[in-house]
Write a structure and sequence with these properties.
Helix 3 links the parallel strand 3 and strand 4. With 279 residues, the chain is of the alpha/beta class. 28% of the residues lie in helices and 15% in strands. It is globular and about 45 Å long. The chain has a single domain, classed as Rossmann fold (3-Layer(aba) Sandwich), CATH 3.40.50. The chain has an eight-stranded mixed β-sheet, with helices on one face.
């Protein structure tokens, strides 16, 4: 009975609250670490330890020390625009330079200490500089991450074999002039040559520019694919039943609840000015 009343209370409260009310900035809590946002889904206090965790790594244009910048595109912006993401959504800000896998894990450890969550369902995704960070952190800590997605990125690691130990999806546009598709292809070829590609998905979107994959953060299927994986899955197989095609990006308009900002979603985040925009 208490759970039912609490759920009713949360539902009533949600009518008077926006997504911004569920965002918490965390600053200077990790020595020499990243500042970050924590988004708590509306039913978190009911789901608690069953709540998955998403970590989003942004691109170079959002680097700095103004935490508000990292809300310009990505999962937090998608949530504000109506996309329901039933996960603790963690968005760190990189002050500059390459993403540091150890510091990303420090953020995850902080979240684990301060929030009840499902540590067998932690997911990382990012694009451009964040795509590099996603590959690097997933390759370094495949035993802590259930699945990852890297868009228009690459890897700074010489040894990327760790990416073969978890379900991983790489997407890159053939017309990307900011980060050449070769950067992703090098990673795929290394995994193929070493026989570590059984859990790998990759797509080369014909004619897609650097900004196109940003719309994936607003697509329902992106999160359905991530959430379908767990560290507890026997042999950790990759889900090949969910497909995401370049053409699916045209459906984002209908896929996100309509609102005042919906047209901005279908055209891509406001940060996208041209195919050469730096993420």
């Amino acid at each position: 009975m208490k759970k039912i009343l609490f759920t009713i209370f949360l539902a009533f409260s949600a009518l008077h609250m926006s997504a911004y009310d569920f965002l918490r900035p965390v600053k200077d809590s990790i020595p020499n670490g990243y500042n970050f946002w924590v988004y708590t889904p509306i039913d978190y206090f009911y789901s608690q330890e069953h709540t998955p965790v998403i970590i989003f790594l942004h691109g170079a244009s959002l680097c700095g020390r103004n935490l508000d910048r990292v809300r310009r595109y990505g999962p937090l912006d998608a949530i504000v625009k109506g996309r329901e993401i039933e996960a603790l959504t963690i968005v760190p800000q990189n002050p500059g330079g390459a993403w540091n896998p150890k510091k990303i894990m420090d953020v995850l450890d902080w979240v684990k200490r301060n929030y009840a969550c499902d540590t067998t369902r932690v997911y990382v995704l990012g694009m451009s500089l964040g795509g590099y960070g996603t590959m690097d952190v997933c390759a370094t800590y495949p035993d802590r991450i259930a699945a990852g997605m890297a868009f228009c990125g690459g890897s700074s690691l010489k040894d990327v074999s760790g990416l073969g130990k978890l379900p991983f999806w790489i997407i890159h546009g053939t017309a990307d002039r900011a980060v050449p598709i070769k950067q992703s292809k090098v990673v795929v070829e290394k995994l193929k040559e070493s026989g570590n590609d059984t859990r790998l998905l990759y797509d080369w979107w014909q004619g897609a520019n650097h900004g196109a994959p940003a719309r994936l953060f607003y697509l329902r299927k992106t999160y359905e694919w991530l959430f379908s994986h767990s560290l507890l899955d026997k042999d950790r197989p990759v889900n090949r039943d969910i497909s995401i095609r370049y053409e699916d990006l045209r459906k984002v308009y209908d896929d996100v609840n309509r609102g005042n900002n919906t047209p901005e979603v279908i055209d891509g985040p406001s940060v996208i000015k041209s195919e050469g925009s730096e993420y």
